[in-house]
TrEMBL record, chain A:
Native source organism of the sequence: Raphanus sativus
PANTHER family: F-BOX DOMAIN-CONTAINING PROTEIN, F-BOX/TPR REPEAT PROTEIN POF3
Segments forming domain F-box: 17-58
Pathway(s) annotated for this protein in UniProt: Protein modification; protein ubiquitination
Gene3D superfamilies listed in its UniProt record: 1.20.1280.50, Ribonuclease Inhibitor
InterPro entries: COI1_F-box, F-box_dom, Leu-rich_rpt, Leu-rich_rpt_Cys-con_subtyp, LRR_dom_sf, Transp_inhibit
Highest taxon, organism lineage: Eukaryota
Record's keyword annotation contains Transcription regulation: no
Keywords, alphabetical: Auxin signaling pathway, Developmental protein, Nucleus, Ubl conjugation pathway
Cellular component per GO, a single term: SCF ubiquitin ligase complex
Nucleus keyword on record: yes
Molecular function per GO: auxin binding
Protein name: Protein AUXIN SIGNALING F-BOX 3-like
Localization (cell): Nucleus
From TrEMBL, chain B:
Residue span(s) of domain PB1: 151-247
Protein name per Swiss-Prot or TrEMBL: Auxin-responsive protein
Region (Disordered): 19-48, 68-101, 119-139
Species lineage: Eukaryota, Viridiplantae, Streptophyta, Embryophyta, Tracheophyta
Provenance organism: Raphanus sativus (Radish)
Gene: LOC130508350
Biological-process GO terms, alphabetical: auxin-activated signaling pathway; regulation of DNA-templated transcription
Length: 593, 253
């Protein structure tokens, strides 16, 4: 934060500037962490910063209440909220756990906030809250929902109908109850402001002519991601409509048979006009021919997400990716194979982020010889000098490979390796993978996010505590031997914000060693570990500024049991710092200590 | 409770076994036997109930309330692998017990949305012999009384409906079940499905409906469903089509 340090010695001079000037200077500071720092300098700056803050990011919706937020930042325009803990994505959190949007919309509306943008992740959103949202904020422009649930297409209809200035409606991987209604029809004819429309996660049919009319009257539309109900010819018409300005396209059309030559020719013609296209995604239930059609513009692509293209075999994926010389971001299925990753390594020299997802979760006896292994990972690390983020699902790994990867790619910021079989050792030496991951944390000095897997002892956590100085988020599963592992992480990683652990033998000793540590962290998740109810109670007593939540399997709650045995192991523990104490909306299956 | 945890966390190879939240909550995340494109509302369908019972029997030894996992996702080479889990340690040295088909809730760490999209895809263009291999494997599993079978997904289209569906034939045991399932998929809205009164018999099979079920067999011919024994049908079916009766001409027998 250069400006603050430069000005600090002469803040008295700075105070002669009118507030608007200081505010204008603050405008250049966008990062919310830096803004938080500014607000701590003195009272005057705190006040100016408060009123000029436009974007607020709340990493845990229960860390603060909407009322307090609005009191502090009455002029906010853009709000990002995250609800359920990360492991909710993997069904480890009951649906009704919490993360409800409604109280926030309610408070924002009552507080007269002129909300323009709302970004939500893992929140429970209801049709009522969407309707309230649509009616309460005249200038509302942008709604982004990621991994949310609880609403239907009726809620989308309200947004479409009432948000006159809507620019962005972006639905990513949400569970939406599709009533197959006419929500697209609800966009009024006067709505011409759309820039981004993504409804790829909707499962039902949509009104195609309504969509075509909507696209036709949206001259600013840059990003369009349709769902599987949009067949090839309709997609072609849509593309022709906005081809020249389209930057981001999501394709998803159900193909019964191969496309007819005439339709295909029209598609090719439309694609040729998409000279601005940089990002391509979708392709669920789409045959390889449709992908091949995009080869003419493939050299322009910077982002490619084929991780849902399960019907396109490896050789077609490889052929396509080979042409994507400018690719920066690639999400793909492991059906591309090690050979395919070698092609990526030689073709995509600009690659920064790679995610390789498993394509076949049923494969018992590794019949599938084309899945990716450590060979592909090494190839990528050797061939792509700009690579900084990776998520890699594979069946096997070796220490040697990880050590090579660490040497090739010391610039990793995010390194997430998921070996599908828990506790799987180095498949050549049969040893644990401690040394491999140790090499990663030692070499990658800027590592902020790490997920470990495979056979791991306490040693890997010793390494992590020692070397991972910038680590902010750590995910652990089926790893470690004793409390020492967890302790090394808690003591060593000074910047740790989120720690999530499952099925690992860490218990009360590790949990309780340094209660103050949790004040510096956003949250801790522990499931199927060795912590007991007694330990959690002790923690809750010593740290009143924490919400310590026990999530029970038994929906009716622990109170049903005759004695609360303090030695009973806790199945799921989720604790987080908060300034507003115990939340009132917890369901019966959650006990807050 | 500890017994179940051991089930979850034994070592050994894991073949997906994605746990879903208890079926009573039944949010649309549960990949039910019917891999349906519906983002189903939290109701129990008939298939969903059947799913629970089967699961409860196969794993529930140590734990009366299974945290449940979808049978259509879990595959196991031996039915006994699940019951062997009780008592095995979480740590690495139980590699001796390394049996395939272990189950861990929420593992591998993939969003439900993504897993459902995989379940909804059939294996890409399987060759003729692959299908036969799959079905004989499945046939053997049926005899094994294994409760956990790999899914046999076939596409189902219906005249006049753009969106096709996929259905897991291995989760069904008879033509009646098939007809009921198809009726629920294509003829019942979520609302009517809840009303027990409107649940009709399998009209699709008894000839009183306007539609008939046909299937394409491995020779490429379209046949009327119901003529051959169920297991034989499973061995030769490639895809299903619900046809309007008027288009019946040309269906081979």
């Amino acid at each position: 934060m250069n400006r603050a340090t430069k000005l600090r010695p002469s803040t008295s001079e700075m105070n002669y500037f009118p507030d608007e000037v200081i505010e204008h200077i603050f405008d250049f500071v966008a990062s919310h962490r830096d803004r938080n720092s500014i607000s701590l300098v003195n009272k005057s700056w705190h006040k100016i910063e408060r009123y000029s803050r436009r974007q607020v990011f709340i990493g845990n919706c229960y860390a603060i209440s909407p009322e307090r937020l609005i009191r502090r930042f009455p002029c906010l325009r853009s709000l990002t909220l995250k609800g359920k803990p990360h492991f909710a994505d993997f069904n480890l959190v009951p649906h009704e756990w919490g993360g409800f949007l409604h109280p926030w919309i309610d408070a924002l509306a009552k507080g007269g906030v002129k909300l323009e943008e709302l970004r939500l992740k893992r929140m429970v959103v209801s049709d009522e809250s969407l309707e309230l949202l649509s009616r309460s904020f005249v200038g509302f422009k942008s709604l982004v929902l990621v991994s949310c649930d609880g609403f239907t297409t009726d809620g989308l209809a309200s947004i479409a109908a009432n948000c006159r200035n809507l620019r962005e409606l972006d639905l990513q991987e949400n569970e939406i109850d599709d009533h197959r209604g006419q929500w697209l029809n609800c966009f009024p004819d006067t709505c011409t402001t759309l820039v981004s429309l993504n409804f790829a996660c909707l499962k039902g049919e949509i009104n195609l002519s309504a969509l075509e009319r909507l696209v036709a009257r949206s001259p600013n539309l840059k990003s369009l991601k349709v769902n599987r109900a949009v067949p090839l010819d309709a997609l072609t018409r849509l593309m022709s409509c906005c081809a020249s300005q389209l930057v981001d396209l999501g394709v998803g059309c159900y193909e019964n048979n191969e496309p007819e030559p005439e339709s295909f020719a029209k598609l090719l013609f439309a694609i040729a006009k998409c000279t601005s296209l940089r990002s391509l995604s979708g392709f669920s239930e789409v045959g390889p021919l449709c992908l091949t059609a995009f080869i003419p513009i493939s050299a322009n692509l910077t982002s490619l997400n084929l991780s849902y293209a399960a019907e396109i075999q490896g050789n077609h994926l490889i052929k396509f990716v080979h042409f994507c010389k400018r690719l920066q971001r690639l999400w793909i299925l492991d059906s591309i194979g090690d050979k395919g990753l070698e092609v990526v390594a030689s073709s995509c020299k600009e690659l920064q982020e790679l995610r390789v997802f498993p394509s076949d979760l049923h494969d018992e006896e590794d019949n599938n010889n084309t899945a990716v292994t450590e060979v592909g990972l090494v190839a990528i690390s050797a061939g792509c000098p700009k690579l900084h983020s990776i998520l890699y699902f594979c069946k096997q790994m070796t220490n040697a490979a990880l050590i090579t990867v660490a040497k090739n790619c010391p610039n990793f910021i995010r390194f997430r390796l998921c070996i599908l079989e828990p506790n799987k050792p180095d498949h050549i030496t049969s040893q644990s993978l401690d040394e491999g991951f140790g090499a990663i944390v030692q070499a990658c000095k800027g590592l902020r996010r790490l997920s470990v897997s495979g056979l791991l002892t306490d040693k890997v956590f010793l390494y992590i505590g020692m070397y991972a100085e910038q680590l902010e988020m750590l995910s652990i599963a089926f790893a470690g031997d004793t409390d020492k592992g967890m302790l090394d992480v808690l003591n060593g990683c000074k910047k740790l914000r989120k720690l999530e652990i499952r099925d690992s033998p860490f218990g009360n000793a590790a949990l309780l060693a340094d209660v103050g540590k949790y004040e510096t962290m956003r949250s801790l998740w522990m499931s199927s570990c060795e912590v007991t109810l007694g330990g959690c109670k002790r923690l809750a007593r010593n740290a009143p500024w924490l919400n310590v939540e026990i999530i029970n399997e038994n929906e009716s709650g622990r109170m049903e049991r005759n004695e609360e045995d303090e030695r009973e192991k806790v199945d799921r523990l989720y604790l987080y710092r908060t300034v507003v104490g115990t939340r009132k909306d917890a369901p019966p299956c959650v006990t807050i200590l | 409770m500890s017994g179940f945890r051991d089930v979850c966390s034994s070592s050994g190879s894991v073949n997906v076994m994605i746990g879903v939240s208890p079926a009573e909550e039944g949010d649309g995340n549960a990949a039910a036997a019917i891999s349906s494109e519906d983002s189903s509302s939290p109701d129990e369908t008939v298939a969903g109930t059947e799913l629970d019972l089967a699961l409860g029997l196969s794993v529930g030894r140590n734990h009366s309330k299974v945290r449940s996992f979808s049978s259509s996702l879990a595959s196991s080479s031996s039915s006994s692998s699940l019951t062997r889990e009780s008592g095995t340690k979480r740590s690495a040295d139980s590699s001796a017990a390394a049996s395939k088909g272990n189950v861990a809730v929420g593992w591998p760490p993939l969003r439900t949305y993504r897993i459902n999209s995989l379940v909804n895809q059939s294996k890409s263009s399987p060759a003729e012999d692959d299908i036969q291999k799959d079905t004989t494997k499945n046939g053997v599993k049926n005899n094994d009384a294994s409760f956990v079978k790999s899914p046999m997904l076939v596409k189902v289209t219906m005249d006049g409906v753009i969106i096709g569906r996929k259905i897991d034939l291995n989760a069904l045991d008879s033509y009646e079940a098939l007809a009921k399932t198809l009726e629920q998929m294509f003829f019942h809205t979520p609302v009517t499905a809840r009303c027990k009164e409107t649940r009709r018999g399998s009209e699709l099979l008894d000839g009183s409906s306007e539609y008939i079920i046909t299937y394409q067999d491995k020779d490429g011919d379209w046949m009327l469903v119901g003529d051959v024994p169920w297991l034989m049908f499973l061995g030769s079916v490639k895809r299903l089509r619900i046809m309007r009766r008027s288009g019946e001409t040309g269906v081979g027998k």
